[in-house]
Write a structure and sequence with these properties.
There is one protein chain. The chain has 223 residues and is α/β, with parallel strands linked by helices. Helix content is 41%, strand content 24%. The chain contains eight helices and 14 strands. Helix 6 packs across helix 8. The longest helix is centred in the middle third of the chain and has 15 residues, at 106-120. The model has no long low-confidence stretch (mean pLDDT 91).
């Protein structure tokens, strides 16, 4: 099931879109402010974003630009009353993949979504994120915000395992087994401690990587 985030302050429009697309098999989460949408994206990347331009806490254009700075291939569609040709051109320049003006037919929106997803695929599955840290699995790349961080293979696998199990404590034994033993490299427990220390330093010591003393590590979203 493809997940869609809809950034829209009009509750009636948001509910109509959410209910219609839900019947078509999509999981839609609606957010009434840019800030709430941003927080949701930092916790989890969906398959597509729908954005209204005029929001109570800012412009959807700046939100689209922020998305593009972190998730370049994530499909984005503007849904807005701004139907001037200059606004439409600006929408694409800010990074949108499509632009739909209000009022719109739900069937037409659905066809636009399907067409865009056919071209893009399930982009959301490429990304793992927690706070300002994200991983692009297709590129084996780690980012702190917009900055790409150079990490070793072991550091990457350590971060990936923690992100894939976000909210759960991963034992030291499991990390040692899956990161090193699977490659035929039998190492001692101190190797994990050193690798985690180096990873934390490279990621600017994020508070959302927790040490569970004498047991393992946990990565969790901060509320």
């Amino acid at each position: 099931m493809t997940e869609i985030y809809y950034i829209e302050d009009d509750e009636n429009i948001a509910m109509a879109v959410k209910e219609y697309l839900g019947r078509k098999g999509y999981a839609v989460s609606a957010f009434g402010t840019l800030e709430s949408g941003k927080i949701a994206l930092e916790h989890h990347v969906p398959g597509m974003i729908l954005i209204d331009w005029n929001m109570p806490d800012g412009q959807g254009s700046s939100f689209c630009r922020w998305i593009r700075s972190r998730w370049k291939e994530l499909p984005v569609i503007f849904l807005t009353v701004r139907d001037d040709s200059r606004d439409i051109i600006s929408g694409f320049e800010y990074g949108a993949d499509d632009y739909v003006t209000k009022p719109f037919e739900l069937e037409v929106l659905h066809s636009r979504i399907r067409a865009l997803l056919r071209r893009a695929g399930n982009v959301g599955s490429r990304y793992l994120s927690c706070g300002f840290i994200s991983i692009d699995k297709s590129k084996t790349a780690v980012f702190c915000g917009e900055e790409e961080i150079t990490v070793s293979q072991a550091e990457y696998r350590l971060l990936q395992l923690l992100m894939e199990n976000k909210g759960k404590t991963v034992t030291r034994e499991r990390l040692l087994s899956q990161i090193w033993d699977n490659n035929g490299n039998y190492v001692n427990d101190n190797t994990l401690t050193v690798t985690m220390k180096r990873l934390r330093e490279k990621l600017h010591h994020p508070s959302f990587i927790k040490t569970i003393r004498s047991f393992g590590y946990r990565m969790e979203d901060e509320i």
